[in-house]
Design goal:
Blueprint lengths: L2 E4 L2 E4 L5 E2 L16 H10 L1 H14 L5 E9 L5 E9 L4 H12 L12 E10 L6
Parallel strand pairs: 1-6, 2-6
Antiparallel strand pairs: 2-3, 4-5, 4-6
């Protein structure tokens, strides 16, 4: 049985902070596989890679902003499979390829009972975020 996790993080290139206030509270209510917090921890640990992809794009297109929904599977080994861009308001192949390449290398804890976990994670990119 596959489990789907969805979450959101606000990502701003001009700051090293990210706003987790927008992360939905109930994303996975299962005792097996991975929890939302386990997935978030790995994504947060790798936000520098996401930042790299976005800042690389900003060097060419400085005002680019939008949302990118990534999807991938966490296999029973903790490795990522099938990293893809499910939806994007940013039409840039370089950003898409960079994100898929980085995410494909991420390592998650091994899901309990060797389950495959489906993950969908939206990133919101904004070069000029409004300070809170």
């Amino acid at each position: 049985m596959n489990h789907t996790i969805a979450a959101m993080v606000f990502f701003a290139a001009s700051t090293s902070q990210y706003n987790t206030d927008r992360v939905p509270s109930a994303l996975l209510s299962s005792e097996d596989g991975l929890t939302r917090l386990e997935v978030q921890a790995v994504i947060r640990a790798n936000l520098g890679q996401v930042r790299y992809c976005y800042e690389k794009l900003l060097m060419q297109k400085p005002n680019t902003a939008g949302k990118v929904l990534v999807s991938f599977k966490v296999l029973g080994t903790g490795r990522v499979d099938n990293a893809a861009i499910a939806e994007s308001t940013i039409a840039d192949q370089g950003l898409s390829e960079c994100l898929k390449s980085k995410i494909s290398r991420w390592r998650f804890p091994q899901p309990r009972q060797g389950k495959t976990v489906d993950v969908k994670y939206p990133f919101t990119f904004d070069p000029n975020p409004v300070p809170k």
